[in-house]
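Galactose oxidase, Ficus carica. Tokens?
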Amino acid sequence: MHMQLLRNNKVVIYDRTDFGPSNLSLGSGRCRFDPSDTALQYDCTAHSVLYDVVLNAFRPLMLLTDSWCSSGSVLPNGTLVQIGGFNDGDHVIRTFSPCLDEDNCDWIETPNYLARRRWYASNQVLSDGRIIVVGGRRQFNYEFYPKNPENPSLLGLHFLRQTSDLDENNLYPFLQLLPDGNLFIFANTRSISFNYHRNRIIKEFPPIPGGDPRNYPSSGSSVLLPLDENKSNLEAEIMVCGGAPRGAHQMALEGTFVEALISCGRLVVTNYQNPNWVMEDMPMPRAMGDMVILPSGDIIIINGVGRGTAGWELGQDPVMAPVIYYPTADQGHRFTILEPSSRPRLYHSTAILLPNGQVLVGGSNPHVYYNFTGVDYPTELSLDAFSPPYLSVDYEPVRPKIIAVTRVLVYGQFFSVVFSVAECNTTNAVSISLIAPSFTTHSFGMNQRMVVMKLARVVQVARFAYNTSVISPSTAEIAPPGYYMLFVVHAGIPSLGAWVKLM
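Tokens:
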């Protein structure tokens, strides 16, 4: 249900605690006692794991309270902050910090930290390293982590109340930090640029055409397209794809599964004078798809269904074939259909980018409880490593390999990256980017972000080696402080990623 990649190439994965026992023991005599749990108050099994990408191994982690349909972000120091959940977990903050002693790292929980119940809320890391927590079920407000004792802990956001609909309120709103420091908030059909410092709407954008909601339970997906600092006029463009038509949730509850939305919309949100959505169609309808930014700068859309909506037993016709979207191609030539997966990934599936360029895909549980037999779409416990086309061995001659990189980057300062490539056609075909790993749940990758940095110089220093002079992101509004995967891309083919810290 939830996944987050950490800077040590380990992935924190977790579900909910109120399904009863899992098949994985906590070990070492550990058990949780939770008198508020609605399924099992004394539980010696794990509902969270730490997955080692390199070793393909995992170990159990201990959750004390219910993390169902929660949210998360990674602080600048690399600590995962997981926010809210259900039942006794809805006011809880949980943190997980990578540490040297991997056998003892575990969740640390702080009860009653949140000012309001946060269930289906969204997060965004801000330019000062704080996390803004927006919305949730019947929560038309926002707050911050960590709290500032000098400011109010809770602030109302009437826009969330205005954009509610009859099926649900606008759960898991799409959030993006804009280069001007304001917060983009998309809820159902409407979106705003929001000054969270002053609790003031700066701009309301036109509604996305069609009138159909895009947030949970419609469950479209959204990304901020890559920011390119090489351009004289830095644009921020939001893309929203798929979802279910208005009324689809109620119709699915009554046994009628309507076709998902096929449309995507792009909106340049730095254009306050004349912003307009530009619409185009995907190759097939899709709800509950995950949009993942690839190091090539393209977008993969993976997982989901062709009919119905999010919710228990409310989706049909799994969409097995991922598609890649090429943002800079001519309209009408931007989508490519890829080889289909062998496993349906419906409700409660996730997808994240790994440093090796693969996309880690996991989950799918469209049932009230875990159900492995006698159903069309059994609960899925496997992980898949999906390899985009750029990982083909045919591209090895032009694939760059990072030899050395500055590990700590300072805003607006020069740093160097040394890489090798067997067949370098032209240094003009090189770009260097940062990608922030996302916290992914319910078809939205929170904090997902790619910044193409300004390349000042590329110099050949050996037969196959090149030294580049790069300018790190100019402001924390363009790239909030923290850990990023750095990729060198040559002729459209990315290197393996290297972890760097931006501060």
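The first strand starts at residue 2 and ends at 5.
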